[in-house]
Design brief:
The chain has about 950 residues and is an alpha+beta fold. It folds into 5 domains: about 15-200, Substrate Binding Domain Of Dnak, Chain:A, Domain 2; about 215-345; about 350-360 and about 385-515, no CATH class; about 660-795, no CATH class; about 815-935, no CATH class. About 65% of the residues lie in helices and about 5% in strands. The protein has a 5-stranded mixed sheet with strand order 5-9-8-7-6. A 3-stranded antiparallel sheet has the order 10-11-12, with no helix packed on it. A hairpin with a 2-residue loop joins strand 6 and strand 7 (about 895-905). Helix 9 runs antiparallel to helix 10 (about 245-260) and helix 27 (about 660-720) packs antiparallel against helix 29. The chain is elongated, with a radius of gyration of 50 Å. It comes from Terrabacter carboxydivorans. This is DUF222 domain-containing protein.
């Protein structure tokens, strides 16, 4: 407050606003502050807290210990609030009183200033009038000036006293108002304490659990809003510098801010809510990829990923820090659930980078979690969120294999660490770029969490469509997808990769082992717990095994990825004997009506019908799907049989009926035999197709070489007209030399079955009861032809081919490879016939070929010769490669000799077919100094 000088002004003229300055102060500001206090009082009085009704309301809707604490705190907060609020009206009135006094004082001072200025004007006029009067002596002017000056000074003194009075009265008003305001302040904040908003909050809410939580949450949200504004500037590219420029600095600044509050769940959720899952992904793409593309070190990107990854874990966690009030805890739980839904919904979204690269939401989430783990944050996502995210990531990668866009592979086209199966901003790209593997690692060691993850169904996907269905047509689960995942990645590649390695293969085995101790569920017959998961896994193993055995590379992938599950399948199958026995006596109801689990005396166990059980046993029996030879069942099947024999031994010792054990073993043996025969039959088909293709190719090449363009046209015409260029003689040769693995496998199955019967009989003490029981079990498996039926069918096939060849030769429409060979041989190499019994000896190469083709192979030539079994030697090979062909006769026996340079399909040397009439009695081959594998003696 400015004070006027009590000393009179001696200057003849001085402005009134200088002599009597206006009192300082803002009348409008004082009244605005008073109105603000009044509004605050009105708002406060309208709340249930200030009215004291909050506590009773809480009691009406909330019970328990926390509710009692909240009610008591509400009453205390209401009392504090009323104590503060009730002093505000007095402070408001004091501000208005002082504002009115200040306004009146200003008006009075302005009046005094005008009177002051009037005195100066009057004095100046008096001096002018005196100067105009005639005064020869000057006495009149001097006396008049003295009188005018005296009047001016007297007036100034009077005005100064009035001014001092106005100022003093205003001071008194100010002291009274300041006292009232000080009283309100002292009521709120203890005397001697610096007054601030924080100090007032401490007085009102200090020590109150719920109130302090609300205040702290507000501060965290304000910080999140500020930091999200910086993040949005980075997303929009407001500072497009490089690693050493503004953008790099802003990235570092954002990383530091997030890192300083990464443990604050309110801040984390507010930040995530401001950005959203889509904004978070775009931030990584805009900031992270730009830094890598500019040549900057990836350390900045990794630091940002680690900070934001920890932020995601904090924001989605349902565990609040110790001491968090129940209200804030409930808000955090609700916010975590909403953020989890948003994250899962965005996992299949593809985000574009400024440089054209793209990444799916699943891949980016994997990068965030990898960054958090790399920075030492060993916390995990909540179990429910982890399994939902894993399921969504699985559906996303299945959709990638069915999407027409082939540019996106395994979730990303970004290659910050190229040359790996996956891309990643971290060193171990092959694993840290695998989002599903990273998400599986988020699960702890709780067996129930592992079981729930394996049973989690995959979400809908418009692109994936029917690929999300299992063998029964139900929705695929995470466990089933992990079994078949290597197929998904095979389908996503340009060509088959036999060296494919997926870390999730080991994850599946770990999860299954961990989940094995989880509760199996109730015994109400419904699909429950791990029993249902085991059934699904077994069905998927059966399905993938059938697929894998179609190709050598997929067989190798299966042996590494899925075959290690077979020992577990054996244990599960051995533990569900009651359900197996029931299935063998129950007609198959079909997949839609079939449950995945059913109760047994030991708890819920998987339920599979006989068709599905056959597939599972077949997967255990077949360990490789290629090779033209019969095979024994795989080691997993042998283990299953040993378990069953041990059970039979226990049944005998306990005096129980072993008939069920024999029925089971008969069914298992029949199922294994069917799977092995199916593979053998497929190999026979492939072998016959290969030989037929060789014959087709030989005719096509010969026709083109002889006829040029006209020959090509003729070949095309033959294909259009007849569908093939093979002759009946070609089909006869194929029938003679093609493999017969099915017969070999059937005979080996018969021998294995006989051995099994003997082992069971040794345990039970007799064969008479074993054979009918095993036959009963085998009848529930697939039907198989006998070895004799296969031999008869093969002989019929050869006879039909021979008859077709005979008819073709009689019609003169066929040509043979040996006919073409005769034309190629020189004079010294032409065939000759020995003089003995010329009627029975072949006279020409064509005649020899005809006899060979029309003859019936003996069992030794058909069964024991490895050269014949491989199907590698055909007459066309002789025609193309032979340098010497001769027929030597003697004693009614014709020897067809062929000298081969080099080798034909790995076989080299001198070949000799010995004909006796119309029957091939033996076949020799020379290789590596041996005849039919026996060293040649000197």
């Amino acid at each position: 407050m400015t004070r006027a000088s009590e000393v009179g002004h001696s200057a003849p003229a001085i402005a009134g606003d200088l002599a009597l300055p206006l009192p300082s102060g803002d009348v409008a500001g004082l009244r605005s502050a008073a109105r603000s206090l009044d509004r605050a009082v009105a708002r406060a009085r309208a709340t249930t807290t200030a009215r004291g009704t909050l506590g009773p309301r809480l009691g009406a809707v909330w019970t328990g210990e926390a509710a009692a604490a909240a009610g008591a705190e509400a009453d205390e907060l209401g009392a504090r609030t009323r104590r503060v609020v009730e002093v505000f009206p007095g402070a408001s009135r004091s501000l208005l009183t002082y504002a009115a006094g200040l306004e009146l004082a200003v008006a009075r001072v302005r009046s005094l200033q005008r009177q002051w200025d009037a005195l100066d004007v009057e004095h100046a006029l008096a001096v002018r009038r005196l100067a105009a009067l005639p005064d020869p002596t000057g006495a009149v002017a001097m006396l008049g000036a003295e009188h005018a000056r005296s009047d001016q000074l007297a007036g100034r003194a009077r005005l100064s006293r009035s001014y001092a009075g106005v100022v003093e009265e205003l001071r008194k008003t100010a002291r009274r108002s300041a006292g009232l305001v000080a009283t309100a302040t002292d009521t709120t904040v203890p005397a001697g304490t610096a007054t601030s908003a924080a100090a007032v909050r401490t007085v009102v809410t200090g020590g109150l659990w719920f109130a302090d939580g609300a205040v702290a949450a507000r501060q965290s949200r304000d910080a999140a809003v500020d930091d999200s504004a910086l993040a949005r500037r980075l997303i929009t590219g407001a500072s497009p510098g490089t690693g050493g420029g503004a953008a790099g600095g802003e990235i570092d600044g954002l990383t530091a801010r997030v890192r300083s509050r990464v443990a604050d769940p309110v801040y984390a959720q507010a930040m995530m809510s401001e950005l959203g899952a889509d904004g978070l992904s775009r931030l990584l793409m805009a900031a992270g990829v730009a830094q890598v593309a500019s040549g900057a070190k990836v350390d900045r990107v990794r630091a940002l990923l680690s900070a934001l990854g920890s932020l995601v874990i904090t924001a989605t966690s349902h565990t609040a820090p110790t001491g968090t009030d129940p209200r804030t805890r409930a808000q955090l739980a609700s916010g975590a659930a909403l953020l989890a839904d948003e994250l899962v919904a965005g996992l299949d979204t593809v985000h574009a980078a400024p440089d054209g690269g793209r990444a799916s939401g699943a891949w980016l989430l994997g990068q965030l979690l990898t960054g958090a783990r790399a920075s030492g944050d060993d916390r995990r996502l909540p179990a429910r969120l982890a399994r939902r995210a894993a399921a969504a990531a699985a559906a996303s990668e299945i959709a990638e294999t069915r999407d027409a866009d082939t540019a996106l592979s395994h979730g990303s086209t970004l290659t910050p660490d190229a040359g790996q199966s996956f891309s990643s901003w971290f060193d171990d790209a092959a694993e840290t770029g695998d989002a599903l593997h990273v998400l599986l690692g988020q699960l702890g060691g709780d067996p129930s969490d592992a079981a729930a993850l394996l049973a989690e169904p995959l979400p809908d996907s418009a692109v994936a469509g029917s690929a999300l269905a299992n063998s029964r047509g139900d929705r695929l689960t995470v466990g089933e997808h992990l079994v078949r995942r290597w197929i998904t990645h095979e389908a996503n590649g340009i060509e088959s990769r036999s060296d494919l390695r997926l870390a999730s293969d080991a994850d599946l085995r770990t999860l299954l082992t961990r989940a094995s101790s989880a509760a199996a569920g109730g015994l109400d017959g419904a699909p429950t717990g791990m029993a249902e998961t085991r059934a699904r896994i077994m069905l998927e193993v059966s399905r993938t095994s059938r697929f894998a055995m179609l190709d050598a590379s997929t067989t190798q992938s299966y042996s590494r990825a899925t075959a290690p599950l077979e020992p577990l399948v054996v244990e599960w199958l051995s533990a569900m004997r009651e359900n197996v026995d029931l299935a063998l006596t129950t007609p198959a109801l079909g997949a839609p009506a079939t449950p995945y689990a059913a109760p047994t005396s030991t708890g819920a166990q998987p339920w599979l019908d006989t068709r599905e059980l056959t597939g599972v046993v077949g997967a255990l029996a077949v360990d490789a799907g290629t090779g033209l030879h019969a095979r024994e069942p795989g080691a997993a099947y042998d283990r299953l049989v040993e378990h069953e024999l041990d059970e039979t031994q226990r049944s005998v010792q306990a005096g129980s009926d072993v008939r069920h054990d024999a029925v089971r073993l008969g069914f298992f043996d029949q199922s294994a035999s069917a799977a092995l025969v199916d593979v053998a039959r497929r190999q026979d088909t492939l072998n016959r197709s290969a030989l037929q293709g060789t014959a087709e190719a030989g005719h096509v090449i010969e026709t083109i070489m002889r006829g040029g363009l006209a020959g090509l046209v003729s070949t095309v015409h033959a294909y259009v007209q007849d569908g093939t260029t093979r002759t009946a003689l070609d089909d006869l040769v194929v029938s003679l030399v093609r493999s017969d693995v099915e017969l070999d496998q059937t005979e080996r199955n018969d021998a294995r079955r006989a051995e099994l019967v003997s082992r069971i009989a040794a345990i039970t003490g007799g064969r008479d009861a074993v054979l009918p029981a095993m036959a009963l079990g085998a009848a529930r498996g697939p039907a198989l032809p006998t070895a004799e039926a296969l031999r008869t069918a093969r002989s019929a096939e050869i006879r039909a081919a021979a008859e077709a060849a005979r008819q073709e030769a009689a019609a003169g429409t066929g040509s043979t490879a040996l006919d073409r060979l005769k034309d190629r041989l020189g004079p010294a190499d032409r065939a000759h016939v020995a003089p003995s019994d010329p009627a029975r000896l072949p006279r020409t190469p064509s005649d020899a070929a005809r006899k060979i083709r029309q003859s019936t192979l003996t069992e030794s030539a058909q069964k024991t010769d490895p050269w014949h079994r491989s199907g590698s030697w055909v007459v066309d090979d002789i025609a193309e490669r032979a340098s010497v062909f001769s027929i030597v006769g003697g004693d009614g026996v014709a020897r067809v000799l062929v000298q081969m340079p080099g080798s034909v399909n790995g076989v080299s040397g001198r070949f000799e077919w010995i004909l006796d009439g119309e029957r091939v009695t033996h076949q020799l081959f020379v290789r590596n100094g041996k005849i039919n594998g026996v060293p040649i003696k000197p």
